[in-house]
């Protein structure tokens, strides 16, 4: 992996080629974006592409979803000069929380939680995760934010698949992702 090479032409999504395919089986996501995060220009361009549709929008805080959403979410928060809220898998926060059960992309039942003192009514939150495959994880995060009175200002992920859950989110919230339309079918089919 060459962490120094930057292509002469950097069109939206050029950094997607930095992702590595799954070699461990069906309990893992089909692509691993962590190599993209190691590439300084790739990470910067990815975050810029994710935030571009929200320029000029009122965003009070960025929330990232456990665990890989923490990376993009924290980078987006730093770029926007906003605070960052971690939405965690249950059992990791030692403060008062509210919890939401959900089914993840692999069909496993899980519970997500967020601290109760970070979201005040009307606070506009940009939700960030690395991937929206079935939409279950992101939908649970949306429910947590809204249950605490927050407003989902938008949803951002490297890829938002055109699954039933992905479409549900895209129909109801302003969304941003990095996959160019010509490549979307390949990502939806995990190719």
TrEMBL record:
Q: Name one GO cellular component term.
A: cytoplasm
Q: Which InterPro entries match?
A: Adenine_PRTase, PRTase-like, PRTase_dom
Q: Which reaction does it catalyse?
A: AMP + diphosphate = 5-phospho-alpha-D-ribose 1-diphosphate + adenine
For whether the record's keyword set contains Cytoplasm, the answer is yes
Q: Where in the cell is it found?
A: Cytoplasm
Can you name one GO molecular function term for this protein? adenine phosphoribosyltransferase activity
Major subcellular site: cytoplasm
Q: Does the keyword Iron-sulfur apply?
A: no
Pfam families recorded: Pribosyltran
SUPFAM superfamilies documented for this protein: PRTase-like
What are the EC numbers?
2.4.2.7
Q: What interactions and quaternary structure are annotated? A: Homodimer.
Concerning PANTHER family, the annotation shows: ADENINE PHOSPHORIBOSYLTRANSFERASE, PHOSPHORIBOSYLTRANSFERASE DOMAIN-CONTAINING PROTEIN
- Protein name, entry field: adenine phosphoribosyltransferase
């Amino acid at each position: 992996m060459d962490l120094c090479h930057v292509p002469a032409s950097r069109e939206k999504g050029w950094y997607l080629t930095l992702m590595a395919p799954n070699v461990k089986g069906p309990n893992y996501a089909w692509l691993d974006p962590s190599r993209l995060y190691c590439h300084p220009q790739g990470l910067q361009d990815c975050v810029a592409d994710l935030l571009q549709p929200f320029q000029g929008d009122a965003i009070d805080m960025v929330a990232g979803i456990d665990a890989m959403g923490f990376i993009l979410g924290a980078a987006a928060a730093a770029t926007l000069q906003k605070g960052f809220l971690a939405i965690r898998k249950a059992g990791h926060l030692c403060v008062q929380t509210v919890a939401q059960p959900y089914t993840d992309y692999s069909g496993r039942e899980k519970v997500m939680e967020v601290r109760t003192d970070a979201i005040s009514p009307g606070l506009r939150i940009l939700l960030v995760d690395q991937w929206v495959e079935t939409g279950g994880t992101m939908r649970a995060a949306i429910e947590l934010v809204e249950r605490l009175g927050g407003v989902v200002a938008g949803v951002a992920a490297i890829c938002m698949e055109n699954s039933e859950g992905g479409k549900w989110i895209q129909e109801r919230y302003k969304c941003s992702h990095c996959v160019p339309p010509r490549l979307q079918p390949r990502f939806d089919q995990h190719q």
